[in-house]
Description:
Blueprint: H1 3-34, H2 37-45, H3 59-67, E1 77-80, E2 87-92, E3 108-113, E4 119-120, H4 128-135, H5 147-170, H6 174-178, H7 187-201, H8 203-230, H9 236-243, H10 264-274, E5 278-286, E6 294-301, E7 311-316, E8 322-326, H11 334-347, H12 352-380, H13 388-406, H14 408-422, H15 430-452, H16 455-481, H17 485-491, H18 494-516
Antiparallel strand pairs: 1-2, 1-5, 2-3, 3-4, 5-6, 6-7, 7-8
Helix pairs in contact: 1-4, 1-5, 1-12, 1-13, 2-4, 2-18, 5-8, 7-12, 8-11, 12-13, 13-15, 13-16, 14-15, 14-16, 16-18, 17-18
Amino acid sequence: MSKRVYNIMFHTHTISGIIISAALYVIFFTGSISFLRDEIIAWERNEPVTDNYFSEVDFDSLLKSLEGDHELRNRDVSFNQRIEGQMASTLISPPKNKKVTKRRGRRNFFVTNLSTYKTEKYAESYTLGEFFYRLHFFAQLNLIGQSGYVLAGLVAFFFLFAILTGVIVHWKKIISSFYVFRPNTKWKTIWTDAHVSLGIIGLPFQFMFAVTGAYLIIGYSIMLPPIESVLFKNDSKGFKEAVSAEKIIEYKLKGEALDTSVSFNDLVAKTKQKWPEIKINGLQIFNYGDKNMHVKVKGSPFYNDKLLTSGYVTFNARDGSVVDEKDPYAKTSYLEGSTNILKRLHFGDYGGYGMKLINFVLGLITCFVIISGVLIWLVARDKSNVPVYKQKFNSWLVHIYMAICLSIYPITALIFIVVKCFGDDFEGGKKVLIYNVFFYGWLALSTIFIIKKDNYFTNKTSLILGSVLGFFVPVANGFVSGNWFWVTWQKGYTQIFVMDIFWILLSLTALAVVFKLKKKTV
C-alpha cells in the first residue's frame, strides 16, 4: 500500500469515527441493555412468565372479554407476542361490511394482558425495555417523518466504513499489535494499544452488528416503502407475497353468522399436538363470527431445534379442517432463511443467557473502543505545532463527547429506580415519566461534566454514581414488590432474578474499574 493510500484510509477512518462516535456509543450502550429487554419488562411489571406461555392462554375467555368492549364481528383479530411476557400486541381490523357504526368501525391497535385480559393503548403499556430498545435506533428522534431511523441508518453505514478502513490501516501489524500493551508510556500509546487490542477482539461482533443494523434499519424502515410504491405500484398484496415467507390468502366475508360454536383453545391445542416442540407466538382470526371464519395459529421451533424458520396452521372454524399450513421443520427457503439469520444475529436471542452475556460484554468493549478512539484523536492533536484555537476546539469537542457518553450509565441506573418506585402512580403516564427523567437528567449531568472540563472527573464520577445507583436497583425492587433476589431465585422467577443480579454485577465491575483509575499529571 502506498503512503498516499495509507494516509487516505487513516484519515478517513479517523474522521468517520469522530463524526459518529457519540451517536454510536449511545447505540451500543442502549443496544447492550436491550439484549435484556424481556427481562427488563418482566422486572418492571413484576410479571414472571413460563416457557411457551402464549400456548397456555385461555383465548376463548379472552375473546369473550374483548367482545364486551369492541365490536369484533366481521373483522380480523390478531394476537402477536413480540416480547416474552404476559403482554401481546392486538390488532382489530376495520369491519368488512357497512353495518357497523362509525364509532365502532375503526381499526384498533392495543396491548392485551393475556392473564388479566386488561387492554392498554401503546402509550399506557410503555415500558423501560421498550424505551431502551427504541432508543438504540433513535426512534425517539422521529420528529419529522423517519428522521431518527435515517440517523441510525447513517451511523450504522459509517460505522461499517470505519471498521473496513480500520482493518486496512492496521492490516500489516494486526497480529503483533494485538499482544502489545504498554501502560507506563505516554497517553497516546496507552489509548492506541487499548483501541487496537480491544478493537481486534470485538471486530467480528462489530462487523456483524454494523451489517445487520444497516440492513434492518435502512432496508426495512427506509427502503421498503419506496420499493412498494415504485416497483410494485402500491400493490400491497403483491408486495407482501414477494417479501413474506407465508402464503397470502384472502378469506372473503360470507355475510352469514357462524352457526356452530368454536373453541380457539382447541385449535391451539391441535397445533401443539401436531408439532409438540413448537413455540406458539401468534393467533390470527379472519372474519370473526362469520360463516367463513378461519383461524391461523402461528409458531416457531425453539432455537436449539431450528433457528431460521416458522410455521402455521390455518383452520376452517366451521368444521375444524386444515385449509393451509407451513411446516416449521421443512426446508427453509432462501428468502426466509436470509431474512431471519440477519435478525437472529442482531437480536442475539438464539443462545440463552450465555449468548446475551457474550453480546453484552462485547457491546461494552465496543463502547470502550469508541471512547479510546476519541481520546487517541485528542492526544494526537495536542502538539505545539497545532494552533491554540484548534487545541481548544478539540478539547471542548472531546469533553462534550465524554460527558454525553459516560453520563448515560448513571442515568440508566437512576431511571430503573424511578420507574420501579413511581412508574405506576405517575399522573402523566409511565412514558412521560421515563422521557422526562431520562432525557432531562442526562442533559443536566452532561452539562455539569462539560462545564467541569475534566475527562478524569467525568469518568470517575460517572462510574461511582452509576455503581451506587446500580446497587439500589435491586433494593428498590425488593421494597416495592417484595421480590428480593433470593426470593425470585427460590420461586424460579428467572427473568426478575437475572435483572437484579445484572445490576449487582455491573456495579461491582464499575467499582473495580474506579479503583484502577489513576490520574496522570500533564
